[in-house]
Structure formats: structure tokens, C-alpha cells
Design goal:
Number of domains: 4
CATH superfamily of the largest domain: HUPs
CATH class of the largest domain: Alpha Beta
Number of strands: 15
Radius of gyration: 29 Å
Largest sheet: 5 strands, parallel
């Protein structure tokens, strides 16, 4: 990428200035090259002289001038300018920009990929909702975030595995089993109270009705505990089938569905607890078994096994992460958790230290809450109470593409509103429609060219010299940079923002430049540009897991 070349040339220039004693010899921070907000300041800008001024004790403008003078010529760069109070600005050559159209068309659907990961193995664990009911709209945010990050990391040279952790053990599963058993008894006309900590949604009633229609009283005549276990097992499988189907509607698929119960069945839980005990990280207090996490950076110790002998959710998670890092040897693990798991982060980092695993290898993304609205009215989502707006209902109403774009459009640490009415609008007011319409418009232009038998193979891209043409190319060549930023910072919200900017650039080009005209040479050149725009926009939509419609 030209951005990296510029950063490298800048660093070499600073080192050369130090060698010539034009600048003091101090340790250099990272040289950061960014795109300026205004193209009047060039295509790229570096503000490093402002940071170096504090270290070197010199005026930033003076530093910028001394460095700029020593920057080696780059074939992509037309001019280098210094601007107050200490910026170094770079403007790209117009002929080089035009030639990038051919480079994009040559790369095809692989355009935008970068080799950041170099084959390192990354596991992305996301969604992992307790299988006690259908997915609600809030779960969609984590699902789309994880799936998109997996797409981008794969495009960035990582070997990526998507995983869903099935919480099929523990207290919440037990409460679900007992709730479903009670509903089956009620369906059979018997008195049975829903447990106080149980699940009361209509979906539990419907699930019980289905089970009773198929099995009848055969399950209820079994001893109570056996009946609870069998009814619960059937219910869990049904819920997991529903979750899998709902995620597939959204275009989200997993490589692995990992069972929490398997940690106990295979002995990995016991093995992990033994390692913690042998390391002196466990102790007993008030009849419970505790992990001494306060000795490893957490603000308090945490219970691993309750006084009744039942392992906590945390204990299962300890074994699960030992399995990820040691048994399966992932280089990096990325967990995407909801806001209610924020307090779980410090103890997970602490337990990795106890197991001699570098905590930096675990990256945790916390997603904030989603507020669903329709016509200004907030819709409630709650699995236990039964006031439930399911993810399937939202996908059915607005479509998977709209869901994906909207959920990706805000940074994960921001709460977000999902406006159902806006997501369905077929107008420029709806960014999803606006972006996809750009691709449909491109497809329409290329179909017209094909119908007229226009041969673009000999199109001369050097004819692309106007600002609308070059402005579109400038946007197009940003994609590899956006991919790198998303992969490095795990911030997929940059993708929909980029898609919107790219669509805006294309719509502006289309408005100002007639593509198919009497000028055959210019027509062929502009059709090459349109084809390159198709490649970049389709690739961007693909990374977000969205379709690139041919017609709208």
C-alpha cells in the first residue's frame, strides 16, 4: 500500500536528518500517516513533527521542513508540501491513480486483501447465547460483528475459525429444563408451578406443546428427575436447531459448535482445576473453592466451585480457555461478549496468567445494548419475561442485509438504536439502500455496455483525468487501508462508513461524467473505471456479509 511506502520513506528521512545532525538523535515513535479531512491538503498527511517537537525541543514546522527535504522520491507521489503548524502533506500522481484502475481489475475479487496475519491462527467465539430460548435482536449485533471480523481477518492473512460455545451445563440450563417440564405438565392438564428462576416466555409454552404432541404422556410417567432431564434434552436440541436456523438467515455460520458439557465429559475441567491447585492459585473459604485472582491483577477473588459442589460459570470458562490456548493451540482468541460480561474480563486475564498463558493473546470485545424502535416507540426485549422481539422477526421484516449494515454502523462500545422503519425505506435516506443501489447502478451500466457490444479491453485509463474520476479512484484505493485498520483494531464499523463514502463518490461520478458517449475511447476508459468500482464495492459488501444486487 502506498500509505505504508510513505510512512517508510518518512521514517528513513527522519533517520537521515538525525545522521546529518539536522535533528537530535532520539528514539523515534511510530510514524503515523493519515488521510486528511480535506483533499486540499493532499492525499496523505503526517503530523509526526508535532509529536517530535516535544521530544526534540524544536519548532514542529522546522522539523517538518528538514524532514521533507530528505524524503526519497516515490513513483506514486507527485509532490510533498509542508504546512503549518508542522504537517507534511503528500499528493499522489494523477497518472498513477489512473493506472490503479487496471491494478484493481487485475486483482478482481481479491482486491483489498492484506497480509497482516501471515497465517497465524485466530479463533473468534461469538454469540454463544444460552440455549434457553430464541435469539433476540440484541444477539444479532454480536453475531454480525463476529462474522464480519472473521471475514476481514481472513482477508488479512489470518487462519480464522468461528466458534459458538454451547452453554449446555449449569444453573440456567437447569432452570430451563424445569420450566419446560412444568409447561409439559400444564399441557397435560396437571397443576405444576413454573420455577421462581424459570423461563416464562410464550416460546416455552409452544415448545412444550410440540413435545407433548409428539411424545404424549410417555415422558411424564417417567420418574420426575428422568422426565426433567429427557424433556430438557429434547428442548435444548430444538432451541439449538432454531438458533442455528436464525443465524443462517442472517448469513452467519460457525465452523465449530463447542459443548460446555464436553469439558466435564472429557476430563478437561478436572485437569484445569488441578493445574490451578498445583500452582497455588486455589483456596477454600466458607465451604466454596476460590481462585486467588486478586494476587494476579483482579480486584477480588472469585468462586470456582460453590459450597454445594456445583462449578460456577467462571470455572467452566477457565477450562474452556485452557482448551482454546493449550489443547487447540490458537495463537489469538477473540471473544465477543455482551455488556453484562464486562466484569468477567479482569478475572479471565488473571486466570490466564495463572495458567502461564500470555493474557495479551486473549482479546475481548464488549458490545453495548441495542434499542429497537418502530415509529419512535421503543420495543422491549427480554427472554425470561416473555416480552420478546426475536431476531428472526427483525430479519423477516427488514432483511438480512439491512440488519448487517445497521448493526455494523456503530462502534461496539456505543449503544445503538435500530430504527425498523428507516431500515426498510427505499430512498437515499436509508444508507443500506443508497450503498446497494450504487452497485445495482453499476451493474446496469455494464449490462448496457454489453448489450451494445462495447469492447473495453483496449480502454486507455490515462484518459481518466477529471476530478470526479480521480476522486472515485482515490476512494477505491482506500479499501486495503480500511481492511488493515479493521483487522488491527477489531473495529468493523469502518466498513459501512467506507461503503457509504465509496457509494457517494460513485453517484457523484455518475452525475458529473457521462459513461457511455459518442467518444469511444473515453467510453472504454470510463467503463473500465466503472468495472473497477464494481469490484471494490462488491468486495466491501462481501466483507460485511451483504449481497451486491444486480438490480433494484
Amino acid at each position: 500500500m502506498v500509505k505504508g511506502k510513505i510512512a517508510g520513506a518518512l521514517r528513513e528521512a527522519v533517520i537521515e536528518a538525525q545522521r546529518q545532525e539536522l535533528l537530535p538523535s532520539v528514539a523515534l515513535p511510530d510514524i503515523v500517516v493519515e488521510r486528511p479531512q480535506s483533499t486540499a491538503h493532499g492525499d496523505y498527511a503526517c503530523s509526526s513533527p508535532l509529536k517530535l517537537a516535544r521530544i526534540m525541543g524544536l519548532n514542529p514546522l522546522q522539523i517538518a521542513e528538514r524532514v521533507a527535504h530528505l524524503i526519497a522520491p516515490l513513483p506514486e507521489v507527485e509532490k510533498v508540501e509542508v504546512a503549518r503548524p508542522g504537517f507534511i502533506n503528500f499528493t499522489l500522481r494523477r497518472d498513477w491513480l489512473a493506472r490503479e484502475v487496471e491494478a484493481i481489475r487485475h486483482a478482481g475479487r481479491d482486491y483489498g486483501g492484506v497480509d497482516l496475519g501471515r497465517g497465524r491462527r485466530v479463533q473468534l467465539e461469538f454469540v454463544s447465547v444460552n440455549p434457553t430460548g430464541p435469539l433476540h435482536v440484541g444477539h444479532g449485533r454480536g453475531a454480525i460483528l463476529g462474522d464480519t471480523l472473521a471475514n476481514v481477518l481472513a482477508a488479512s492473512g489470518y487462519s480464522v475459525e468461528r466458534e459458538y460455545y454451547v452453554n449446555d451445563a449449569g444453573g440456567q440450563i437447569d432452570a430451563f429444563y424445569r420450566s419446560l417440564y412444568a409447561r409439559c405438565q400444564q399441557e397435560a392438564g396437571r397443576q405444576e408451578e413454573i420455577p421462581q428462576d424459570g423461563y416464562r416466555g410464550d416460546y416455552v409454552v409452544e415448545l412444550a406443546r410440540q413435545i407433548m404432541a409428539e411424545k404424549g404422556d410417555a415422558l411424564l410417567v417417567m420418574p420426575r428427575e428422568e422426565a426433567v432431564a429427557e424433556i430438557g434434552r429434547i428442548g435444548l436440541l430444538r432451541v439449538m436447531e432454531s438458533i442455528r436456523a436464525d443465524l443462517e438467515l442472517l448469513g452467519v455460520n460457525f465452523d465449530v459448535w463447542f459443548s460446555e458439557k464436553s469439558l466435564y465429559d472429557t476430563g478437561q475441567y478436572q485437569q484445569t482445576m488441578s493445574l490451578l491447585r498445583a500452582g497455588g492459585h486455589m483456596g477454600e473459604k466458607e465451604g466454596a473453592v476460590w481462585f486467588a485472582s486478586s494476587e494476579l491483577g483482579d480486584d477480588k477473588d472469585n468462586v470456582l466451585v460453590r459450597s454445594n459442589g456445583v462449578p460456577t460459570y467462571f470455572a467452566s470458562d477457565v477450562a474452556y480457555h485452557y482448551n482454546k490456548f493449550v489443547a487447540r493451540q490458537f495463537d489469538t482468541v477473540i471473544n465477543i461478549w455482551g455488556a453484562d460480561h464486562q466484569g468477567h474480563v479482569p478475572r479471565m486475564k488473571a486466570v490466564l496468567r495463572a495458567l502461564d498463558i500470555d493474557p495479551a493473546r486473549l482479546q475481548i470485545i464488549i458490545t453495548q445494548m441495542v434499542t429497537l424502535r418502530r415509529g419512535g416507540v421503543e420495543l422491549r426485549i427480554s427472554k425470561r419475561s416473555g416480552e420478546l422481539v426475536t431476531l428472526r422477526e427483525v430479519v423477516d421484516e427488514v432483511g438480512a442485509d439491512a440488519c448487517r449494515f445497521v448493526f455494523l454502523s456503530r462502534s461496539t462500545d456505543s449503544q445503538m438504536d435500530f430504527d425498523l422503519e428507516l431500515a426498510k425505506k427505499e430512498s437515499a435516506e436509508n444508507p443500506v439502500y443508497y450503498v446497494q443501489y450504487a452497485h445495482a447502478r453499476i451493474a446496469s451500466i455494464l449490462r448496457m455496455a454489453a448489450e451494445r457490444n462495447i469492447d473495453i479491453s483496449r480502454g486507455d485509463v490515462s484518459l481518466l483525468v477529471t476530478e470526479p474520476e480521480l476522486g472515485l479512484i482515490r476512494r477505491m484505493i482506500e479499501l486495503p487501508e480500511v481492511v488493515e485498520i479493521v483487522a488491527a483494531n477489531l473495529e468493523p464499523h469502518h466498513l459501512p462508513h467506507y461503503a457509504l463514502e465509496l457509494a457517494t463518490a460513485f453517484h457523484g461520478f455518475y452525475r458529473d461524467c457521462r459513461v457511455i458517449s459518442e467518444d469511444e475511447a473515453l467510453t472504454a476508459a470510463r467503463l473500465k473505471l466503472v468495472d473497477a468500482a464494481r469490484i471494490v464495492l462488491a468486495r466491501t459488501l462481501s466483507l460485511m456479509g451483504m449481497t451486491a444486487p444486480e438490480r433494484m
